[in-house]
């Protein structure tokens, strides 16, 4: 069942004589077909340079009158670009948790609209298209529309759309305050650039993703272009090149990627000795772990959830640094970033047994059906057992709260994302590190 209808009048000149009649007829058809379930209706039109939004809406008022069943669920959205108008409508859809949308639009706009949708939406949304019965003057369209339906849009037109979207997203204000980066005093900042992100300072607006979400998924509502803009802002603030940014391809296992060698399909650890290359590991309860060797000038990052912890992903990353770059275990520094703490994290009893074998102190209320688990402590024990010096590991055992950066993500909703706390549509922060040029 269609939950929302978008009527795209963006390409139609505001002085077109039949636009009011066209809109009236379209709304009339919607109202007749929606007597039981009235969907939300959005009318998208172009706000001409120098005109006021109010004036644009007033021009359409005669066509909007009389549709009582749609009245409260109908909104006119005027903007100077399709990207701005469509992104505004996306926010309205997300506020109402709507996902099934019909778009009524001129035939010549269909392929163009599909490009905008591919960039601004994810697979969470379902779209169907219906032709708006109107003959448009092609010179009123902002992008050449000589192609026939079904043909691929010319690459130069796609580039124009991508540029428009990027410029619009760059113009948006940051949400939830300034972008904040947590840094460890253990990693020398004269050699390495590093940090752990928090959730502030980005443009993601969906509550569980707001605002500096750094991961896009087909199962979430934040598209890749928004995550890319968040990353651009992080890169500007931190001082790294977003074009030389490499994030692990999470598999919740222990494979490690060596930069410069064949990249595995999936891996949870990554290492390099190349300058100016930024490595990153995500975390939204799982631990983003950073590794630095100031002697051999090598670094790494790993994603360590309960599975990766048990599989030894942190020591696998350390071993890769030793074997590839000749690092000495006593020189490697390891920092555990924000992650779910033993105060909040529970696992079924059978899984808790595995952590109990590492150290009984990794489990609290062991005899319960779902004991509390300390994946940080387990990570430290495995690292120390592998030869990392205890003083070269920074985690939540730091007593000085001014130095502590291993916060519990579930306990701090204002600072961090948490899958455990927020459910399936959760945001993601990262730990990142690079060797300075």
TrEMBL record:
Keywords: Acetylation, Cytoplasm, Endoplasmic reticulum, Hydrolase, Immunity, Inflammatory response, Innate immunity, Metal-binding, Nucleus, Peroxisome, Phosphoprotein, Transferase, Zinc. It holds the Pfam family Cu-oxidase_4. InterPro entries: Cu_polyphenol_OxRdtase (IPR003730), Cu_polyphenol_OxRdtase_sf (IPR038371), Cytotoxic_necrot_fac-like_cat (IPR011324). GO terms for molecular function: copper ion binding; hydrolase activity; S-methyl-5-thioadenosine phosphorylase activity. This is Purine nucleoside phosphorylase LACC1. It comes from Bombycilla garrulus (Bohemian waxwing). GO terms for biological process: inflammatory response; innate immune response; regulation of defense response. Its EC number is 2.4.2.1, 2.4.2.28, 3.5.4.4. Interacts with FASN. Interacts with SDHA. Interacts with ATF6, EIF2AK3 and ERN1. One of its GO terms (cellular component) is endoplasmic reticulum. The lineage of its organism: Eukaryota, Metazoa, Chordata, Craniata, Vertebrata. Transmembrane segments: none annotated. SUPFAM superfamilies: CNF1/YfiH-like putative cysteine hydrolases (SSF64438). PANTHER family: PURINE NUCLEOSIDE PHOSPHORYLASE LACC1, UNCHARACTERIZED PROTEIN YFIH. Belongs to the purine nucleoside phosphorylase YfiH/LACC1 family. CDD domains: YfiH. It catalyses: inosine + phosphate = alpha-D-ribose 1-phosphate + hypoxanthine; S-methyl-5'-thioadenosine + phosphate = 5-(methylsulfanyl)-alpha-D-ribose 1-phosphate + adenine; adenosine + phosphate = alpha-D-ribose 1-phosphate + adenine; guanosine + phosphate = alpha-D-ribose 1-phosphate + guanine. It is found in: Cytoplasm; Endoplasmic reticulum; Nucleus; Peroxisome.
């Amino acid at each position: 069942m269609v939950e929302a209808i978008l009527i795209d009048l963006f390409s139609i000149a505001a002085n077109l004589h039949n636009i009011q009649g066209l809109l009236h007829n379209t709304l009339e058809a919607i109202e007749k077909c929606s007597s039981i379930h009235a969907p939300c209706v959005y009318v998208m039109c172009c706000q001409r340079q120098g005109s006021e939004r109010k004036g644009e809406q007033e021009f359409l008022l005669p066509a909007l009158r009389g549709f009582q069943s749609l009245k409260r669920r109908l909104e006119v959205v005027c903007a100077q670009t399709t990207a701005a108008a469509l992104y505004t409508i996306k926010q309205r859809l997300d506020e109402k948790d709507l996902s099934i949308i019909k778009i009524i639009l001129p035939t010549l706009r269909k392929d163009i609209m599909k490009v905008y949708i591919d960039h601004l939406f994810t697979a969470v949304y379902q779209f169907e298209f219906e032709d708006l019965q109107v003959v448009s003057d092609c010179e009123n369209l902002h992008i050449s529309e000589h192609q026939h339906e079904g043909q691929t849009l010319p690459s130069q037109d796609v580039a124009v759309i991508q540029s428009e979207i990027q410029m619009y997203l760059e113009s948006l204000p940051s949400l939830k305050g300034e972008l904040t980066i947590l840094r460890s005093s253990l990693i020398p900042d004269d050699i390495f650039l590093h940090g752990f992100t928090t959730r502030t300072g980005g443009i993601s607006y969906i509550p569980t993703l707001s605002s500096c979400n750094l991961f896009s998924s087909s199962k979430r509502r934040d598209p890749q272009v928004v995550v890319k803009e968040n990353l651009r802002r992080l890169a500007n603030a931190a001082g790294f090149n977003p074009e030389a940014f490499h994030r692990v391809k999470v598999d919740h296992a222990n494979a490690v990627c060596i930069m410069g060698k064949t990249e595995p399909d999936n891996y949870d650890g990554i290492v390099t000795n190349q300058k100016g290359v930024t490595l990153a590991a995500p975390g939204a309860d799982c631990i983003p772990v950073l590794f630095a060797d100031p002697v051999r000038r090598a670094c790494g990052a790993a994603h360590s959830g309960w599975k990766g912890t048990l599989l030894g992903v942190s020591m696998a990353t350390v071993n890769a640094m030793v074997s590839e770059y000749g690092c000495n275990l006593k020189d490697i520094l390891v920092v555990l970033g924000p992650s779910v703490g033993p105060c909040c994290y529970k696992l079924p009893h059978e899984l808790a047994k595995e952590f109990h074998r590492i150290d009984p102190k990794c489990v609290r209320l062991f005899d319960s059906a779902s004991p509390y688990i300390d994946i940080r402590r387990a990570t430290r024990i495995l690292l120390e057992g592998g030869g990392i010096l205890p003083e070269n590991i920074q985690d939540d055992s730091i007593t000085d709260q001014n130095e502590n950066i291993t916060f519990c993500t579930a306990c701090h909703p204002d600072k961090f994302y948490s899958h455990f706390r927020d459910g399936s549509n959760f945001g993601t922060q990262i730990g990142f590190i690079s060797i300075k040029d």
